[in-house]
Amino acid sequence: MKRYMLVVAYDGTNYCGWQVQPGRATIEGELNKALSGLLGQEIEVIGASRTDSGVHSLGNVAVFDAETRIPGEKFKYALNQRLPEDIRVQESRETSRDFHPRRCSSRKTYEYRICSRETELPTERLYAHFTYRTLDIQRMQRAAAYVVGEHDFKSFCSAGSQVRETVRTVYSLIVEQEESLIKIRITGSGFLYNMVRIIAGTLMEVGMGAREPEEMESIIAACDRSFAGPTAPARGLRLIKIQYTG
Amino acid sequence: MKRYMLVVAYDGTNYCGWQVQPGRATIEGELNKALSGLLGQEIEVIGASRTDSGVHSLGNVAVFDAETRIPGEKFKYALNQRLPEDIRVQESRETSRDFHPRRCSSRKTYEYRICSRETELPTERLYAHFTYRTLDIQRMQRAAAYVVGEHDFKSFCSAGSQVRETVRTVYSLIVEQEESLIKIRITGSGFLYNMVRIIAGTLMEVGMGAREPEEMESIIAACDRSFAGPTAPARGLRLIKIQYTG
User: Fold this and answer.
1) pLDDT of residue A79
2) Strand, helix or coil at B220?
3) Is B15 exposed, middle or buried, given 0-12, 13-18 or 19+ CB atoms closer than 10 A?
4) Which of A164, A207, A211, B168 could form a disulfide with A135 if both were Cys (CB 3.0 to 4.6 A apart)?
5) pLDDT beneath 70, residues of chain A
6) Is residue B149 situated within a structural domain?
7) B9/A119 CB distance under 8 A
8) H helices within A83-194, ranges in order?
9) Does residue A113 sit in the same domain as residue A8?
């Protein structure tokens, strides 16, 4: 039995997220189906990030175990022929038997995209959150600086989450603008449930003047979800990459 | 009777192009339907650029005539409530009765996007032409320089076209790269049928080494479609803007 690793990009628009759900199209479900069909045996992948419905990815990571003579590098081509066109394996290779994509330590990078202009842009509608509000990028950048570092991010964790340990490290948080597109790029040691979307929602409130950049400090200190802004919509979020550091 | 102008953005993926065709979804058809429903009378728009199936737009222009007391600026909001989410009017206003979006002189800007990497990126699949070939941008830039200026562009006109006058002026042609995305941006006095897509297809051949940049000069001089490269696929093309200069 060998363990194989996949780097998976997808357009999340037509899926109910990563995780298998009976009777619904999911990324994990499509990967399991393609792998099981290819190998003639029941295969179940383990994913690194269980992205929500509508969230996109350039590089989620998954592993699976199989008894096969197919070289690790070849899975990419064989799977892409079986997968729908909105899921594409970017890389495949054999990995060590004890590599676990969620338990091994990593740095994850996400990007949240906001389209801020008077009228929606149809070609961006599935890949950015639209707002007709004008956002002050410099205010957002000042607020972003408070987020960087090791903090208890309980204020930025959706109420439904079961996780007990809520301290995480954010290595960088960059806000930049390219015409009407604002990109929030965040790299961290891991993220709580909806953490990036709540940070994006809070930064948007700062950008539109509803909050002061300096409030970010007390929002973090409160360790209470009700102090932060709303959870920004899923379509604006994309997982950029996962780097294993262990 | 007054004449109104619309600036229209759309995601061309789900349409059979701009022009009305019986029994098929088209941008023009959707605009006619929304306007006729709004005004309670049969309205037919006249479009500036009859984009092909799958081609996108940030700013195509259309006009229509109507007897109404709705202020020109309000059409935008009223139409966007009736239009599908992949078509959005960016701007609306009253214009002069003799303004014709195809007959009045203008500068049009198109962008052709190429995604050049080992494996397709699902989030770009509908908005860029994918190639696994590596393209040399500097070669493409050298070839692009020959296209700028006033030329007979017959070599870059699809055989089906009825147009007699094939001299056009290209004001600028910029090739730039951002990670795996290559953008070809061209501004001209007007374009022949498929001209931008044939220029893009020819530049791609130069980029992959199948032709020399200097060949561009003799391709133009030949005034023969068979000398140029293939017509690049529609999904990579987007109309950026139309500026009326008259």
Assistant:
1) 98
2) helix
3) buried
4) A207
5) none
6) yes
7) yes
8) 137-147
9) no
The answer to whether residue B246 scores a pLDDT higher than 80 is: no
Does A122 contact B76 at a Cβ distance shorter than 8 Å?
A: no
Domain co-membership, B113 together with B226: yes
Question: Quick one: B34 and B137 in the same domain?
Answer: no
Would residue A69 count as lying in a domain?
Answer: yes
The tokens describing B238, both together, are 């987007």
Is-catalytic flag, A52?
Answer: yes
Percentage of residues of chain B with pLDDT beyond 70 = 100
In which domain, by residue range, is A173 found?
106-244
How many domains, in total, are found in chain B?
2
Q: Which helix (H) or strand (E) holds B29?
A: helix B27-39
Task: Judge if B177 and B235 occupy the same domain.
Answer: yes
Pairwise CB contact (< 8 Å): B80 & A238: no
pTM of the model: 0.94
**Cα-Cα-Cα-Cα dihedral sign, residues A2, A10, A149, A190:** negative
B237 lies in the same domain as B151: yes
> Which chain A residues are closer than 8 Å to B233 by Cβ?
none
Q: Which amino acid, B56?
A: H
**In percent, how much of chain B has pLDDT > 90?**
97
Q: Note whether residue A49 is domain-resident.
A: yes
**What's the average model confidence in pLDDT over B30-40?**
97
Rounded distance between C-alpha atoms, residue B197 and residue B224, angstroms: 16
* H-helix segments, chain A: 27-39, 75-82, 137-147, 195-207, 215-222
